[in-house]
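Cross-posted from the bioinformatics board.
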Amino acid sequence: MPEIAEVRTVAKTLNKRIVGRKIIGLDMPYSKIIDGDIDEFKRQVIDKEFTSIDNYGKWLFLILGDVTILSHLRMEGKYFIKPSDDALTKHEHIIFHLDDGSDLRYHDTRKFGRMRLCNTEEIYRTEEISKLGIEPDHKSLNKEYVYENIKNKNIPIKTLLLDQTIINGLGNIYVDEVLFASNVHPETLGKMLTIEDADNIVKSAKRIITKATELGGTTIRSYTSSLGVYGNYQNELMVHTKDKESCKICGSVIEKTRVGGRGTYFCPKCQVKK
DNA sequence: AGTGCGACCCGAACGC
DNA sequence: TGCGTTCGGGTCGCAC
């Protein structure tokens, strides 16, 4: 569930809370979260200090000077800061003991999240990061770029936007919102879309992600908070989670369907399939 | 190469 | 009530 706006919120909060703290110990009750050699990971992060926290799309960068932990929260990954002597809870899988008596704890009910180590100067050359597209609100994202990347695709636009290689950072919630705002039906194949559709998608994505970032992201379902921080974009949602409710624009009944195996909400009147 | 889909996970919601 | 089943959601890897 954490998409770009939520990950930015986590990065911002972690920057305030752990920069300057040194890792003095590490426990890994469920070490499969970490890709690569576990002992090497441990050896590399012990005695390092968090120098800054950043993100690119949904990827979080926990920067420890010359090495960086790439952390992907997938659906339910969360970080918490707690006193070291607090008992571990069921879904706390990776525990960083810090030099001020607190822990940074990675919590993930579904164990889908992943972490791996890389050299800080090589972040953008890693397999995970190098293939990612442009962030929705970055100035270099424009209609020509999007149009060129979708115009030959025999794939539904919803699926294309969820694949992170064109636009980086949109997930199921914001893709539904962007397509609604663009008057594009989620099942429309990439090759059916016009440059005007691409323009609408770009403009909507910029507006929606800018607003969602300002509001700290979206808090829906059981996924509530990370580090005690709640987002407020859920109050702005037009279609996502609105099955059978009336469209705020035209009054039609919002429908729920599946596109590429994902729950998809849309307005049948505002978003006509081509 | 391009495209589709199950696996990874587990708790909540749902159906009987 | 209590059980079994379905759903969800990001990404990878395999199958066609």
